[in-house]
Amino acid sequence: MSVRKLKPITPGQRFRVVNGFDAITADKPEKSLLAPLKKSGGRNSQGKMTMRHRGGGHKRRYRVIDFKRDKQGVAATVKSIEYDPNRTAFIALLEYADGVKKYIIAQNGLQVGQKVSSGQGAAPEVGNALALSDIPLGTVISCIELRPGQGAVMARSAGTFAQLMAKDGKFVTVKMPSGETRLILSGCMATIGAISNSDHQLLVSGKAGRSRWLGKRPRTRPVAMNPVDHPMGGGEGRASGGHPRSRNGIPAKGFRTRSETKSTNKYIIERRKK
Predict the structure, then answer these.
(1) 64, 105 contact by CB (below 8 A)
(2) Mean pLDDT confidence for 55-84
């Protein structure tokens, strides 16, 4: 994986850094695994705007991803590594021995033609999905379930990974991408390896128009607002805005919003760093 810096032949390209797409091997998605994706524009079922700064953007089709990896005991071959407009990571098209095709989140180092499998008996190799109880200590993992059979919910974005630290009875200790250390049931599934497209964090849009292609609309800086509109608005001249906080007054930059009485607090061994 690499990035490319464009020649500044236009002002928008002067600072732009784009993905090299070295790992991509196919330019057309598998038709049978596409689904329609409707845009909401930030509106709820009543048509009221509940989320600002959303709207427009290029039309997309959803790629149906197999987050559960529940086709166990059947080997699959990686047919292609593809770009997915709905997520930061790349995806891999698998074809199982019985002819079924499925998409999964691609791990770093996954190659076309490689064999992957899931479930009991699968080797702890990149792309294979196993129960946490069957994974050796210290292994780098991703696409982790939080409840058995739920499907992967954690460590799914580009370049992220977690690490299996310890095993104790029906729980295992996992160090999350955020730095948090927590307990997870040992029956939950996880995939071996870090997520692909780790260079995603190095990309630079280069111009405001690219945000519009992604469906992001312009956002007014709180400091530029009036006091009636935002806690950081108002003041004589160009005021600094005071302590950073949200529109409804919740402080930003280090303020902890997690409930102290949340039932799952008992599973967190060490909180993420500030």
Answers:
(1) no
(2) 96
Contact status, residue 152 vs residue 162, Cβ threshold 8 Å:
no
**The two three-digit tokens of residue 38, written as one number:** 């409707």
What local confidence, expressed as pLDDT, does residue 273 receive? 78
- CA-CA-CA-CA torsion for 47, 52, 53, 58, nearest 10 degrees? -30
| Residue 224: φ, ψ to 5° | -85, -5
253: left (phi over 0), alpha (psi -120 to 50) or beta: left
Classified as helix, coil or strand, 54 is strand
pTM for the whole structure: 0.93
The answer to whether the Cα torsion of 244, 245, 251, 253 is positive or negative is negative
- Residue 101 reports pLDDT greater than 70: yes
Instruction: State the average pLDDT over residues 30-52.
Output: 96
Segment 131-153 shows an average pLDDT of 97
Strand order in the sheet with 140-142: 129-131, 189-192, 140-142, 162-168, 171-175, 181-185, 268-270
CATH 2.40.50.140 at 3-201, yes or no = yes
Place of tokens 């948090």: 180
Phi, psi of 212 (to 5 degrees): -70, -35
Question: What would the DSSP string read from start to end of 102-156?
Answer: EEEEPBTT--TT-EE-BSTT--S-TT-EEEGGGSPTT-EEESB-SSTTS---BS-
- The answer, yes or no, to whether residue 252 has pLDDT greater than 70, is yes
Residue recorded with tokens 């379930």 = 145
In the predicted structure, residue 211 carries a pLDDT above the cut 80: yes
pLDDT digits (tens, 9 = 90+) for 161-201: 999 999 999 999 999 999 999 999 999 999 999 999 999 99
